[in-house]
Design the sequence.
């Protein structure tokens, strides 16, 4: 018995004057094109499909249920797609199926119905495109992303541990300095030790605010300054009012935030230190932005500045810190009397272009 040519059989199955043209289109396609009967049995596969599936002879798969050629886990998906095709719906999916020789392959599959002249679905058309290369690349990228995510997670844990150790170190140094200050109470050394403890305590608070969001490379200036000012005021038992005219999306680098926070901490600390004795100091913080410049103004209701006060000539470390940071960021510091009866300091700094965008 002479084997039946699957192409001749396809002409019979497709029937009609366009059968030869349809067959040419099917065989020209680089995809694996299959025709199934309504029960899902294979009745045709184009030449490129036989090659892609590494099938030597169509007769070896003729009348074979299409799902039986797939791994068992794909069975439900294939049956659902064939049932949908019989109702006229088109189904697309991506799935794994090795070739007849066991070569691993990924396929993008489209399943649809073939209608007769009366519009009835009489065959099922299944087109499978080999997407193994793209799926492999995607899986490799996903694995790489997973590895990077795991590395980032480990880094976050490590940074959290480092942050915890830094906090403990701050606390230990502050406690030691305050103990020494109590032992030297009443003398110049005691005052200096107490001042050093307060300054390190301020640094610890700046550190705490900067590490509220350790996963971010920059800091929301509005949130950071507002939280830090409130935190410092509570710690120093001062009343503070923040007037914020900053853009809500203004963000700065962690380095700039630390410098701005240190300036703010020194200004608040000085205002509290020189307030009226026995009275809770009142502070007013005004924040403004003009193009790439940030203005930080702190006013108080204290006794005000002494006559002839010159920040450049001031011997206090806090004022020197403010001047150094301000000048490093391309700005400066000016001073005067506040409308509250006390002192006013305004620090202007230039924000990084990338951070202020």
Sequence:
């Amino acid at each position: 018995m002479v084997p039946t040519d699957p192409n001749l059989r396809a002409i019979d199955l497709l029937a009609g004057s366009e059968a030869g043209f349809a067959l040419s289109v099917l065989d020209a396609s680089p995809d694996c094109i299959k025709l199934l009967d309504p029960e899902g049995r294979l009745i045709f596969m184009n030449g490129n499909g036989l090659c892609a599936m590494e099938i030597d002879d169509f007769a070896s798969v003729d009348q074979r249920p299409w799902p039986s050629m797939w791994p068992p886990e794909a069975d439900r998906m294939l049956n659902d797609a064939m049932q949908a095709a019989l109702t006229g719906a088109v189904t697309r999916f991506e799935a794994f199926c090795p070739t007849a020789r066991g070569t691993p392959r990924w396929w993008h599959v489209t399943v649809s119905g073939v209608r007769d002249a009366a519009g009835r679905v009489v065959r099922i058309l299944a087109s499978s495109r080999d997407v193994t290369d793209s799926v492999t690349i995607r899986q490799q990228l996903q694995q790489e992303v997973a590895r990077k995510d795991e590395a980032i997670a480990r880094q976050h844990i490590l940074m959290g541990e480092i942050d915890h150790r830094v906090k403990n170190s701050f606390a230990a140094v502050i406690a030691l300095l305050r103990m020494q200050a109590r032992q030297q109470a009443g003398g110049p050394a005691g005052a200096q030790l107490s001042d050093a403890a307060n300054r390190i305590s301020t640094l610890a608070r700046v550190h705490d605010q900067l590490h509220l969001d350790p996963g971010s490379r920059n800091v929301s200036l509005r949130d950071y300054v507002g939280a830090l000012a409130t935190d410092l005021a509570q710690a120093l038992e001062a009343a503070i009012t923040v007037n914020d005219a900053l853009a809500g999306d203004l963000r700065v680098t962690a380095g700039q935030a630390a410098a701005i926070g240190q300036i703010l901490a020194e200004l608040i600390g000085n205002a509290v230190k020189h307030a009226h004795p026995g009275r809770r100091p009142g502070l007013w913080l005004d924040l403004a932005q003009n193009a790439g410049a940030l203005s930080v103004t702190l006013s108080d209701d204290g006794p005000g500045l002494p006559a002839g006060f010159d920040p450049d000539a001031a011997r206090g470390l806090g004022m020197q810190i403010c001047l150094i940071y301000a000048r490093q960021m391309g700005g400066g510091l000016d001073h005067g009397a506040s409308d509250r009866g006390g002192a006013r300091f305004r620090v202007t700094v230039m924000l990084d272009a990338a951070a202020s965008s």
User: Anything to note?
Assistant: The first helix runs from residue 6 to 14.
